[in-house]
Write a structure and sequence with these properties.
- By secondary structure, this protein is an alpha+beta fold.
- It is built from five helices and three strands, in the order H-H-E-H-H-E-E-H.
- The chain has a three-stranded antiparallel beta sheet.
- Strand 2 and strand 3 form a beta hairpin.
- The chain is elongated, with a radius of gyration of 21 Å.
- The N and C termini lie far apart (45 Å).
Length: 113
């Protein structure tokens, strides 16, 4: 994996903002038009559109337009690279902690003998 994987960076950037996370939480219940996503935020529509653009650029949502209504839907499989990266990091740290635990246990056994 590249040190600065652009897709992974876009995902973390998109999820770093609480408004965008709230939008994703709303979309987890089902697709919604932009106006329905904007109302609970209290933000102006252009600001919400910028948040949606970040989410769409990261691949976390897909939008479709029917007439004047733009509808957004979550793309859950877009989180797979992030989950894979986090699982890899967890495995690395668990292995390090296991080695530390083994080392401490060995030191304790040597002190007892």
């Amino acid at each position: 994996m590249a040190k600065h994987d652009p897709d992974l960076s876009a995902l973390f950037h998109a999820l770093a903002d609480p408004t965008r996370r709230a939008i994703l939480a709303r979309l987890a219940a089902g697709a919604a038009p932009v106006t329905a996503l904007a109302n609970p935020t209290g933000l102006r529509l252009p600001t919400v559109m910028r948040h949606l653009s970040v989410l769409e650029d990261a691949g976390l949502i897909a939008t479709s337009k029917d007439g004047r209504v733009r509808t957004c839907a979550i793309v859950p499989e877009a989180l797979v690279p992030m989950r894979t990266w986090l699982d890899d990091q967890r495995a690395v740290w668990e292995a390090r902690l296991d080695r530390l635990d083994d080392y401490v246990m060995k030191l304790m056994e040597e002190r007892e003998t």
